[in-house]
Amino acid sequence: MQDEDFSAFAELSPFELKDKLIAVAKTESQRVMLNAGRGNPNFLATQPRHAFLRLGEFALQEAERSYSYLNSGFGGLPEKEGMVERFESYASRFSGDQGISFLRAGISFVRDQLEMEREDFLFEMVSAFLGCNYPVPPRMLTHSEEIVHAYIAKEMFGPKPASGPFSLFATEGGTAAMTYIFQTLKNNGLIAAGDKIALGTPIFSPYLEIPPLPDYALEIIDVRMDENNEWQFPDDEIARLEDPDVKVFCLVNPSNPPSYKLSDASLEKLADLINTKRKDLIVVTDDVYGTFADDFVSLFAMCPYNTLCVYSFSKYFGATGWRLGVIGLHEDNAIDAALAGLDKKEKDLLDERYSSLTTDVAGLRFIDRLVADSRAVALNHTAGLSTPQQLQMTLFALHGLMDLHETYKSAAKHLIRHRYRTLCQNIGLDPKTGSNDVNYYYLIDLQQLGEELYGAEFAKWFAQDQRGTDFLFRLARETGVVLLPGKGFEVIDASARVSLANLTEAEYAEIGTFTRRVLDELHTDFEKEKG
């Protein structure tokens, strides 16, 4: 094994390298493969799914009322008048049912907390399940947006007061949100080839891989977190954002893979710089892991004028297959201001691009341009996330809003943090959890761990000749464990990312044991080379 050369794979995206590691683990290892590479959770929220199914059954009954005389599996559009009473009659047949209890609570909640008319809300949800109409408005269904808006405000703003109204665009997960944002920034002349984009690194690998693509050809500026200070931004790194040539700053908070949220001090320093010296800076904050953090506050709340918020329901609700995400943008924002400030030539080009949508292109907001560009403008009238997806997203958001005692949230946090402790203990490390630690992932710094276990000379040897990649392949081949390389997320030291969301407690104990075993074997190789 030690004579094989895996350096050719070192530059692959971590998610492409994962497939190579899986192939090795499946064919070479004598054990069952343990894939801790991808962050797909093995837990999920059941109550909003029960509600989806019960609402679906009711929706079909509503559809069948329209053409019941045909008696041939033929249905029609639901009728709004009297729907609440018919739902109560339907619900009375299922006393104690989880889905019905959730729906009744949700109908009560939206009336009491969001001042919605019960019939309007229920009619939109029933129609959404049936998928019998195009999404209208295309950006997001009216009641769905209001409910998800309340959820985003609760989870992203923490104790901070609302900083003005914001709009949401429902997307096919956070990945679609990223794609649409880069695409529309370019289409509207807000980024161009050769422009600088700052990335808060380490960061989710697509943020590293999209800017250099020929479509964008952006120059990446690293704003690097300090591993020795809970992965916070040092002052001199934050100062790099003062460069007026930096057009966009992208941040994942809590971070991926270190899995630390920004501290209050870091948030204040970033916000102070952006709100005073860089009022023109476009900020994209990807806050998918914020719901696992304690007392989380997003840059979306701290810098509302500058910030696009990306949030995905995939991780917290165990819904990666549903593809549910949103982009949030405040009504008063720097991006629309930048569009207004474009020169006449660029405005004329944009007038031509969006002329089929409106006679007032100058008044077309950036968030609505995102929607149009997602369907090549010409198909804007058929844009939008499918209505059944929007229904499930709305039910997830209601679940978060109605988790008043944080029962679900506490269980999710406890689960991943206990797995973290188990992993560390079996590697031989003392588990340490600070106030900013989230623990959705654990980044094993192999060089630092090697130095702690075997000394500085071994750590120096390990850092040479792509031994971090060698470690991953050796771990996969000998033990069946698949981890991702930290290098693919712009981590400097040789390291491995462990997802703490997708395996059992016992399996994390095995991963810890196997990780230590392979490190011990590498140390033996080191000793042999020394003679």
TrEMBL record:
EC numbers for this chain: 2.6.1.-
Domain Aminotransferase class I/classII large intervals: 171-510
Record InterPro entries: Aminotransferase_I/II_large (IPR004839), Aspartate_4-decarboxylase (IPR022518), Ethylene_sulfur-biosynth (IPR050478), NHTrfase_class1_PyrdxlP-BS (IPR004838), PyrdxlP-dep_Trfase (IPR015424), PyrdxlP-dep_Trfase_major (IPR015421), PyrdxlP-dep_Trfase_small (IPR015422)
Phylogenetic placement of the source organism: Bacteria, Pseudomonadati, Pseudomonadota, Alphaproteobacteria, Hyphomicrobiales
Organism: Hoeflea prorocentri
Family label: Belongs to the class-I pyridoxal-phosphate-dependent aminotransferase family.
Cofactor(s) the protein requires to work: pyridoxal 5'-phosphate
One Pfam family named in its UniProt record: Aminotran_1_2
Superkingdom of origin: Bacteria
Any GO BP: aspartate metabolic process
PANTHER family in alphabetical order: BIFUNCTIONAL ASPARTATE AMINOTRANSFERASE AND GLUTAMATE/ASPARTATE-PREPHENATE AMINOTRANSFERASE-RELATED (PTHR43795), BIFUNCTIONAL ASPARTATE AMINOTRANSFERASE AND GLUTAMATE_ASPARTATE-PREPHENATE AMINOTRANSFERASE (PTHR43795:SF2)
Protein's UniProt name: Aminotransferase
Keyword entries, A-Z: Aminotransferase, Lyase, Pyridoxal phosphate, Transferase
Enzyme class, first EC level, given as a word: transferase
Recorded GO MF terms: aspartate 4-decarboxylase activity; pyridoxal phosphate binding; transaminase activity
